[in-house]
Amino acid sequence: KGPIKAVERKRVDVKAPGIIPRKSVNEPMSTGLKAIDALIPVGRGQRELVIGDRQTGKTAIILDTMLNQKSVHDNGPEKEKLYCVYVAVGQKRSTVAQFVKVLEERGALEYSVIVAATASDPAPMQFLAPFTACT
User: Fold this and answer.
1) For the residues of 32-66, what is the DSSP string, one character each?
2) For helices 58-67 and 93-105, angle between their N-to-C axes, nearest 10 degrees
3) Which of 47, 88, 118, 123 is deepest in the core (most CB within 10 A)?
4) pLDDT at 72
5) Which residues on neighbouring strands pair with residue 85, listed in sequence order?
6) What is d(CA 12, CA 56) in angstroms, rounded to the nearest whole number?
7) pTM of the model
8) Per-residue tens of pLDDT for the chain, all 135 residues
9) Closest CA to 29 of 83, 109, 108, 106
10) φ, ψ at 23 (rounded to 5°)
11) CB-facing half-sphere around the CA of 116: CA atoms within 13 A
């Protein structure tokens, strides 16, 4: 919890590698939500954008998915452990604090990273948050 103590510095605005040099995704990630696993399977290691109208449960889906990784993280071998990165852009500080509190209470914060650029942060910070999280 708190700021990350960086070992090295990297540019945030680097060009993403093309399709060919990327490692292929061939293993699904279980979200714990059968409808999502069946209709929109997410591969392990993929980034996933969750968008939708207000009050449609986007944050709840992400929270459930992150909490459902705990059993694999606690019981699985190191090779199978999954680390979660959550980027909150434009949300209220209180909403992000609530999200972090739930992760902390359930022991999921140990394998999670939260990058937040809240509604009160300047627009450039909100723009850079997703790039920072994926670096």
Assistant:
1) S-HHHHHHS-EETT-------STTSSHHHHHHHHH
2) 20
3) 88
4) 84
5) 113
6) 31
7) 0.83
8) 777 787 888 888 788 888 888 888 888 888 889 999 899 888 888 888 899 999 999 999 999 999 999 988 888 888 888 899 999 999 999 999 999 999 999 999 999 999 999 999 999 999 999 988 887
9) 83
10) -75, 135
11) 18
Task: State the pLDDT at residue 128.
Answer: 92
Paired tokens of 47: 């980034």
Both tokens of 18, joined, read 């093309």
Give the domain ranges of the chain: 28-133
Tell which residue, 121, 124, 99, has the closest CA to residue 13. 124
Dist. CA 82–CA 33, nearest whole Å: 17
As a dihedral over the C-alpha atoms of residue 74, residue 103, residue 12, residue 6, rounded to 10 degrees, the angle is -70
Determine whether domain 28-133 maps to CATH 3.40.50.10800: no
Count CB neighbours of 80 within 10 A: 11
- Cα-flanking dihedrals φ and ψ of residue 61, to 5°? -65, -45
CA–chain centroid gap for 46, Å, is 10
